[in-house]
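Hi support team,

I've been running sequence recovery on a batch of backbones for a student project. Most finish fine, but this one hangs at about 90% for roughly twenty minutes before it completes. I'm not sure whether the input is malformed or the queue is just slow. I've pasted the structure tokens below so you can try to reproduce it. Let me know if you need the job ID as well.

Thanks,
M.K.
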């Protein structure tokens, strides 16, 4: 009798762990990220986009971006519905600011994220010296 109870308890616990792992994988969230390139003269080309599992991105109808730095942009509200680009929006700018991202899903629900656009140039260095200067390392001297 005790063996049957232990077996049943192990099965329940194993199923519980398995179902939690599966539900956790399905509940992964969509978040916002950006890329940036320094184009010179204190100006950057930035692109903000959504990141998440394919099945979650496929649930999105469109994304409204509200650029909080309104004086610099003549059209501060932008709607993007191109799923292939991960709902990307590209623009030029010279300073960091917040972007309100409203994500509208196919089931008529929505999610709002206030995203801080960071203008950090993350292009890869072209040489070993440039790499060393970017991370403030001096060349290793062996003797």
């Amino acid at each position: 009798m005790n063996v049957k109870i232990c077996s049943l308890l192990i099965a329940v616990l194993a199923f519980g762990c398995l179902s939690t792992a599966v539900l956790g994988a399905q509940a992964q969230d969509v978040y916002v990220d950006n890329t940036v390139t320094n184009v010179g003269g204190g100006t950057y080309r930035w692109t903000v986009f959504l990141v998440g599992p394919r099945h979650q991105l496929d649930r999105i109808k469109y994304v409204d971006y509200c650029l909080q730095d309104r004086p610099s942009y003549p059209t501060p509200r932008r709607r993007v519905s191109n799923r292939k680009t991960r709902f990307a929006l590209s623009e030029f700018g010279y300073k960091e600011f917040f972007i309100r991202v409203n994500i509208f899903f196919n089931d008529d629900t929505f999610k709002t994220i206030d995203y801080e656009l960071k203008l950090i140039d993350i292009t890869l260095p072209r040489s070993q010296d440039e790499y060393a200067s970017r991370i403030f390392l001096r060349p290793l001297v062996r003797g």
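--
Follow-up from support: It reproduced on our side and the slowdown came from queue contention, not your input. Strands lie at 31-40, 43-51, 60-67, 77-80, 89-93, 97-105, 110-117. No action needed from you.
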